[in-house]
């Protein structure tokens, strides 16, 4: 039996909102790179949907040759795959933008990862056949509600371009870490779109439709769009692939440490290519030294890194981390400011005091 005191010492989610529920992963206190479901961050636009699992069906319709309705039992019997995927909310680190932007003030924990098991979306689409006029695949969730800027009720719906939908690693998942996906994370079926921000991975899938034109739903044409200008929509473009990024997990911000040797540790990730190096600075960026990256097989997850820091002079220090990927993308000193606060990926920083 587990010790009750151990449970008291376990990390918990940090609350950003309750109606709807939005909570952060305790990213600094994870002792594994596979996030257990009870520590997986929660991002919702509406209250949780009411579903009847015993009569759950997945229709695929629109521009298909043969519309089909799949039962959950049929889907589970199809050839499956398991992939390690990171899901990062597009608003992760929003609270760090200057000037401040409106929205959930996520710190560094709107990010989690683990093993997802399911069926390639392309397997289901091959079973229905694709009409040559199809350009996008529209995924509608059961979660719905009213928006603050609209009077109508909307389902949470997103589309994917056909080529991304047909990527064999875009899956309709039914398990997370070898267990049924928890209801609050999308049970019974959730779309998983590797390399893209988490808004693309629609939960509680209600139906899938193939369409011939660009989808203009509010969670695609209003939200999850980069707006570089505060006053107008000029030069806006959609949020898709995750930026290269890193987070320092230890030490924590404003921690007091003794002189001596300390291990700086963290995670790094990217939505394109792979993380090729992580650099650490303890002198405000005057010098950068490479951290050690833990070996990992190619996946869609983050890499863990460590850097051994010997410090013997008391004082206040700023520790910085900078990740670079194989496409040559590097974290900038300042983020790309946009008025909805998406895609923050500036060099990470924590302040510590040495005594």
TrEMBL record:
Listed cofactors: Mo-molybdopterin
Species of origin: Halalkalibacter alkaliphilus
Record-annotated Moybdenum cofactor oxidoreductase dimerisation domain positions: 241-353
InterPro entries in the record: Ig_E-set, MoCF_OxRdtse_dimer, Mopterin_OxRdtase_euk, OxRdtase_Mopterin-bd_dom, OxRdtase_Mopterin-bd_sf
Keywords for the protein's UniProt record, in alphabetical order: Metal-binding, Molybdenum, Oxidoreductase
Biased composition (Polar residues): 1-17
Span list, region Disordered: 1-23
PANTHER family hit by this protein: SULFITE OXIDASE, MITOCHONDRIAL, SULFITE REDUCTASE
Gene3D superfamilies, per database record: 2.60.40.650, Oxidoreductase, molybdopterin-binding domain
GO biological process: sulfur compound metabolic process
Name listed for the protein in its UniProt record: Sulfite oxidase
Domain Oxidoreductase molybdopterin-binding stretches: 45-218
Gene Ontology MF annotations: heme binding; molybdenum ion binding; molybdopterin cofactor binding; sulfite oxidase activity
Top-level lineage group: Bacteria
Database matches in Pfam families: Mo-co_dimer, Oxidored_molyb
